[in-house]
């Protein structure tokens, strides 16, 4: 019973409360930034002992926090930092501690960052770290169980632990478009294999799936509707890879269209401000993405049927 209780405690995430309680530390001398070594070729090497914070992935040396990479500022859990419980590895590389954890974040941020480490031979053997918020997602667990990141080991960072090592590596620039394409290729290889034919029915990727307001409008076009964050990868990846047309909703679902075959047509429904992850995905695709109004989506999907009839 005690083991079960400890496991349940480790799975909890009190992020809002921890961020609120930690805010007071940010004005104390303990929060002053340590000078960071100069990165080389977009990669920072930090010699320690060095530890990674579970909320932000921030690296600490000698009790002082290093400045984050550009655009990488996140709240730090000063409670865990002050009263630490530690795990230790020979080398670590914090890769994802973002605010919005979903499949789009996996495909455009976390998985590309993990694979980008492979461009640097010196990081071989370093354990890639991702936050609990991302690591506990079913899609992330499926990906890891399928060996998509192998041979790179990935550790899900428990919220109540510092992870320490003699050396840490940190990417100083966002993953490149080629890293996003490499991540999609790894997923296709793991769940589909080498054959990718865009001969299946058109597919709509919509947050909420059949409950999406757009689902009723496109259902008459003979389209298959899937919610990317609620569909196991063993079903989702083959469906996207084999679809003749892929329509993405406007909440970041375009990231999943990275899995589409090279012959598939891809479109996105414009719904207010574009999710930044959708922009990353569009920039990585080696094809143009059509932008549609919601009322244009059914006709665009029916075009697949008309093409097949000629």
Main sheet: strands, sense, barrel: 8 strands, mixed
Oligomer: single chain
The helix-and-strand class reads: alpha/beta
Please report the number of helical segments. 11
Spell the H/E element sequence.
HHEEEHEEHEHHEEHEHEHEEHEH
Q: What Rg is obtained from the alpha carbons, in whole angstroms? A: 21 Å
Q: Which bin fits the share of residues in helices?
A: 25-40%
Mean pLDDT score:
87
Describe this structure as you would to a colleague.
By secondary structure, the protein is of the alpha/beta class. It has 2 domains: 135 residues, no CATH class; 116 residues, Rossmann fold, CATH 3.40.50. It contains 11 helices and 13 strands. The longest helix has 15 residues.
């Amino acid at each position: 019973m005690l083991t079960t209780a400890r496991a349940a405690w480790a799975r909890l995430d009190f992020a809002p409360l921890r961020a609120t309680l930690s805010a007071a530390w940010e004005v104390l001398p303990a929060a002053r930034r340590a000078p960071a070594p100069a990165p080389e070729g977009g990669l920072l090497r930090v010699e320690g002992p060095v530890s990674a914070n579970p909320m932000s992935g921030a690296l600490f040396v000698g009790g002082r926090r290093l400045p984050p990479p550009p655009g990488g500022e996140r709240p730090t859990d000063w409670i865990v930092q002050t009263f630490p419980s530690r795990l230790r590895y020979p080398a670590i590389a914090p890769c994802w501690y973002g605010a919005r954890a979903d499949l789009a974040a996996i495909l455009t941020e976390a998985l590309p960052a993990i694979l980008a480490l492979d461009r640097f031979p010196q990081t071989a053997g370093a354990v890639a770290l991702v936050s609990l918020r991302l690591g506990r997602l079913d899609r992330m667990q499926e990906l890891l169980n399928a060996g998509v990141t192998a041979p790179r080991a990935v550790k899900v960072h428990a919220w109540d632990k510092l992870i320490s090592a003699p050396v840490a590596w940190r990417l100083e620039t966002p993953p490149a478009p080629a890293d996003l394409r490499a991540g999609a290729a790894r997923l296709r290889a793991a769940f589909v294999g080498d054959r990718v034919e865009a001969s299946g029915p058109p597919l709509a990727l919509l947050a909420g799936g059949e409950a999406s307001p757009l689902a009723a409008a496109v259902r008459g076009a003979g389209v298959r509707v899937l919610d990317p964050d609620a569909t196991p990868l063993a079903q989702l990846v083959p469906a996207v890879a084999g679809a003749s047309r892929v329509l993405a909703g406007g909440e970041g679902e375009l990231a999943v269209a990275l899995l589409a075959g090279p012959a598939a047509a891809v479109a996105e429904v414009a719904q207010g401000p574009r999710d930044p992850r959708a922009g990353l995905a569009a920039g990585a695709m080696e094809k143009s993405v059509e932008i549609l109004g919601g009322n244009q989506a059914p006709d665009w999907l029916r075009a697949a049927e008309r093409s097949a009839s000629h």
